[in-house]
Structures are given as C-alpha cells and as structure tokens.
Amino acid sequence: QVQLVESGGGLVQAGGSLRLSCAASGNIFSINTMGWYRQAPGKQRELVAGITSGGSTNYADSVKGRFTISRDNAKNTVYLQMNSLKPEDTAVYYCSLRPYYSVSPRYWGQGTQVTVSS
Predict the structure, then answer these.
(1) 2-58, pLDDT tens digit by residue?
(2) Are the C-beta atoms of residues 90 and 114 closer than 8 Å to each other?
C-alpha cells in the first residue's frame, strides 16, 4: 500500500505564490509518475502537471509558464510551485502516483485546498 500526504495549500491573493508538497510512503515502485490534479466546485478533476521518475514533465495549458512541478526521488516527494496565481486556480489539489504498470493514477492524496482571492 502507498500513502500520499499533501501540504502547503491555503489562501493567497491573485498574483501570489504557493508551494505544494506531497510525500509518498509505503510500497513504492521506483519507476512511476507523480502528479497533481485539481477539482473546482462543480467541475471534473483535471490534470495540472505530472513528472516521471526520470524527470520528464507535462503541464495543463492553463498553468504553463506559471506552475513548476519537481520531485526529489530520494525523499519520494513531489512539489508544485505555483506562481502568478489566478482566482480560477481555486480548487482542491490532489497528489497522485501512477506505478509504471498502471495506465492511470492508482494512489491519491487526501487533497489540499487552494483559494485565490481577487
């Protein structure tokens, strides 16, 4: 079993920054993809950014140039640096982990609220 624990959410004004962290523990395969998803009220959960254990990244178009995903494999931790935040970034952000053998995320964190005020 794998556990994901997120931290770093909160309330910030538009234009501000936040950094989310997600620490994974348990039976983790070294080859995996970790990512961040978000879900706003009344909307479907969407991918924000992902990063493979080799360091390849992908981003949603809406966050390109503003958000940066990174990871520390030694600590099994993934980060999401969010700059130039907008009110439309308000959502619950979820950390995910997809082992190499899975076609979709298999493990999820509990979620952390990010609220951007205008």
Answers:
(1) 999 999 999 999 999 999 999 999 988 788 999 999 999 999 999 999 999 999 999
(2) yes
Is 18 within 8 Å of 10 (Cβ atoms)?
Answer: yes
The secondary structure of the chain, three-state, reads CEEEEEECCEEEECCCCEEEEEEEEECCCCCEEEEEEEECCCCCCEEEEEEECCCCEEECHHHCCCEEEEEECCCCEEEEEECCCCHHHCEEEEEEEEECCCCCCCEECCCEEEEEEC
Task: For strands 77-82 and 67-72, give the pairing.
Answer: antiparallel
